[in-house]
Amino acid sequence: MNGFDTAWLPPEAFGPLGARRTLIRGSGPLVGTVRDEVARACERFGGEVVRDGSYDLLLEVTDGGLGAEEFTCAREGGTTTVTASNGHGLLYGLFHVVRLGAQAFTGGWPREVHRPATELRMLDHWDNVAVHPVMGQVERGYAGGSLFWREGRAREDFARVRAYGRLLAACGINAVCVNNVNVHAVEARLLTDRIGEVAAIADVLRPYGVRTHLAVTFAAPVVLGGLSTADPLEPAVREWWAAAARTVYAAVPDFGGFVVKADSEGQPGPFTYGRSHADGANMLAAALAPHGGTVHWRAFVYDHRQDWRDRTTDRARAAYDHFAPLDGEFAAGAVLQVKHGPMDFQVREPVSPVLGAMPRTRLAVEVQATQEYTGQQRHVCWLGPMWSEVLGFRPEGESGPSVGELARELVAVSNAGDDPFWTGHPLAQANLYTFGRLAWRPDADPYRVLDEWIGLTFPSAPARLVEGLHAVLDGSWRTYEKYTAPLGVGFMVQSGHHYGPSVDGYEYSPWGTYHFADRDGIGVDRSAATGTGYAAQYAEPWSGVYESAGTCPDELLLFFHHVPYGHVLSSGRTVIQHIYDTRFDGVAEAEKARRVWAGLVDLVEPAWHARVAERFEEQVRGAREWRDQVNSYFLRKSGVPDAHGRLIH
Amino acid sequence: MNGFDTAWLPPEAFGPLGARRTLIRGSGPLVGTVRDEVARACERFGGEVVRDGSYDLLLEVTDGGLGAEEFTCAREGGTTTVTASNGHGLLYGLFHVVRLGAQAFTGGWPREVHRPATELRMLDHWDNVAVHPVMGQVERGYAGGSLFWREGRAREDFARVRAYGRLLAACGINAVCVNNVNVHAVEARLLTDRIGEVAAIADVLRPYGVRTHLAVTFAAPVVLGGLSTADPLEPAVREWWAAAARTVYAAVPDFGGFVVKADSEGQPGPFTYGRSHADGANMLAAALAPHGGTVHWRAFVYDHRQDWRDRTTDRARAAYDHFAPLDGEFAAGAVLQVKHGPMDFQVREPVSPVLGAMPRTRLAVEVQATQEYTGQQRHVCWLGPMWSEVLGFRPEGESGPSVGELARELVAVSNAGDDPFWTGHPLAQANLYTFGRLAWRPDADPYRVLDEWIGLTFPSAPARLVEGLHAVLDGSWRTYEKYTAPLGVGFMVQSGHHYGPSVDGYEYSPWGTYHFADRDGIGVDRSAATGTGYAAQYAEPWSGVYESAGTCPDELLLFFHHVPYGHVLSSGRTVIQHIYDTRFDGVAEAEKARRVWAGLVDLVEPAWHARVAERFEEQVRGAREWRDQVNSYFLRKSGVPDAHGRLIH
């Protein structure tokens, strides 16, 4: 195991392509990448890159009116043809052929046009250059160290970064932010005197069509520039940023832009100067615009020093309250990056109302591949179905557009690190791949995407392996939901590291994360009539659906309503019995997945199999701990026995 | 403020002595210390150290049959006379005169003999040589860095250690263990190639009669000696330790001995080799005996990986179960060091049953000055009355001996660090002083000891300051108890750092620390009849007293019994109303103490006053947080409203 072939795109995935005669027409750096890929495959599988004569595959840059990342694919008369208007589209076309496998050279089909539905498909790396005393090298990182940074500097050997760029191109990702949105002192300097390290990374990612972005601190003019203010309307500040952008682009001509977490969880921002977030974002957009860059401005702004005694403040409301009034005020080069839910990447949240409330703003939806609250890559939790649900949500009901149609961009917090398997849980690779493909086409069927990932990762897998992988992954998100916090209420995790259960772990905290369980009932009243009014942040039909406990979907009930334990769900079960039942079911499902995986031992490379098997041991242990703590907590509190008489401690 | 006079023994404390003519007879290093002290005082206050002629004070080493640390004091015909059989006793006599102040030179009184009731009065420093990634420089340290270690080595400047030795001598402490009982890799080597650093510290402490001890790892023969085993019955192991002891004594001729935490919280021990703790301790005692050293073997042994679901295992039982059967098996040079309670330094615990169960074992009682669970030197919590209660407890009832009489030694986990005030909370100095004086005389009235501390720390304090300090300190332990975990049940702290409330923080943990609160009641059934049987580890009358909820003292009720919230205490209140009332009372008392302190602003040196005032802000904030979290938790769980209708969130 060389640590590079342990993901999709092992050499075998190129077998059908590598055995053919391929003609490549066009020039430019990304065409060079295409040429190298094909040549390497042919070397191994006996095919040839031809300069003329007959061929099975034509990869051609033409001026066929295609967009920057588009490609076409057709097969006629025994020849498969891919065209694109530049090398970037051609590279995507090449990987399309690889995904098709033998099928790419079978039969015939008319010209298909493939284009990404979103302009930008980005991974945000929460990587620190210097190891942070609390958060370590990668904040919320569960896959080893950083791919980019080591011992306070950019790595010396970028072979792994190169391989990463290739994996990303193969699933359609075209942008990476290389450092943590919580920008500490050392990392701040990447913007100025240490930009050379960013440029070195950008050079390695560029041949795969991946542009490099940088997280910056809003206070940079003060902490780096020595100015007395970072006021976004102050001319000296604007000029400082403009000059900083010029320097960055001199080093990285295709630099993507800045990512900013401002006025959030202790990070500085425009509020300090009495300015709006549009003022802040627009200033940075103005600095970047001359060079073709954009600023990603995160909407994750809330009061993280809330008083748990204060039931009028609702963290879920915060992003909408802060940003919806600013719709139309953001510059063209400012992207508002919105977490998919109103809280923080819980296993179940409603879709953020911000996504339906800002039609005149360029929106990016942010999801979290790293699994901070969904098992931290120790539990298998394939998030494809969850992301798909989010992207399919229609804020104005069935007749309106989906989130996938409203979003101009998709962003994920990356789950990759220098682990030999890229991700701490080898099966978590599927999250990275699925994210890229859903970002390309938000209405894709996630189970079909999973098929792609299986096909690319385990070329010529026998049916038993394909079925086994589906059995282990398809329902894993819902399994995880079953044994953790129930019915959308969220949190209930141990504080700080967020792994493992603690039902009251965030109940009396300043973080705005409460379930309000007492001896009679549980849940947060976010209705407009009697609660915090959060439900009214949605348009109809959702505001009406969520407003009433009678129409609110079961899986979100406790997010929107405080109900008695005896409240009957639409499933016909009471809330308390649902809590008990799903916990037992969740553990049983985790145990079953472990058994299924054990049965695949003869079909999976031993190190791969062993790592996953080891994670399943921890998952089953963890699931039982969740089951027992949650059940004991609610039995002690409600006094209601399990209807089926199972053991609750 | 020079950082050295901010404790007892500022120069002014020597005023009455320094104005006199003093004759000193005797020789030896500690007599030299006495001579220096007197000379320095005279320089400042105009007195004189005379060689003959008339004098007001005679300090004399005689062969009057006194024990090693004893001294006499008398006043007759205008002359005060202190005698001792050596310099150590004479030094204690000198500090006795300083404590008496002007009274030492007023009137007359017959010869009094002063002798310590205990042989050894020790401070254990939980200091790491190298900063530990989780625990920092001082484990559970709330007073800055280590007095001894800095940046991975012994400090270069020992002026502060010298001043520390002097403070310790003045309150009667005669031993210090200079490193953490959790012995990490770097610290292990203090025993061997780094013993020179220990010797340097010992040299500085020696003139104050303080002997130096070292915490060692039981695995030393393996990790340092390269042996394949640390089996205490293996001849090669025994010889390794004997050789190690010889090396230590070559460097530190008056070395005190080893301190060992074995088979506890992950530290290695004799259980690994199927040996008993007596086997382990006796091996080390044998190595030390030829040189006059002792081993302090901690009785803090329990299963810290308990399953919270398992109600048959009771951590409180562990020390007795492990050690009581070994009574009589420990060598003369082995001291069993027993925490005062069965758990871990909670604000209220019963006295450890081990202390009444091992008459044939040399016992040391261990208390914790550092306040890990009692406010971490951010809350004022003078522990004198608590320690006094422990020492006054009579395991066999009124006719039997007290713990203070049973204990041959007293040990405290030190609360001192390199903070300019020595302790993080300046008033926590009183804990250090009180410990020393109670160790000297366990039946001393702690409030009189506090008077001493006030007199020495604030010489010629006006009555208003003396009264104010008593008002703030006298009841502070019970105030702290009132707003934290109720009725002896303990814990309810945030995990890891142990500061601040989390009612369920240790409820589903592996640490054996549970309260079992449900909607009907709370507490741990430790009775013999229906519970874990812990109550039966006591002799009569206590086993009977604790066995029944009807006779168990209120303040320990939930430690011994699980009772309904409506259970009526001997105070006449129900348990739930007691919880509410004491929380409100505790906060009111903390607020009152803050006011009292504010009123002393004109009487206390500004930096001193300000530091304490700042701590009171945090204490009041923290007390309110405790009150509100505990009350909300139990209101939600019990559903019983406060009888007085006060606000519970």
From TrEMBL, chains A, B:
It holds the Pfam family Glyco_hydro_67M. It comes from Streptomyces vulcanius. This is Alpha-glucuronidase. Residues 423-646 form the Glycosyl hydrolase family 67 C-terminal domain. Residues 113-397 form the Glycosyl hydrolase family 67 catalytic domain. PANTHER family: ALPHA-GLUCURONIDASE A. InterPro entries: A-glucoronidase_C_sf (IPR037054), GH (IPR017853), Glyco_hydro_67_C (IPR011099), Glyco_hydro_67_cat (IPR011100).
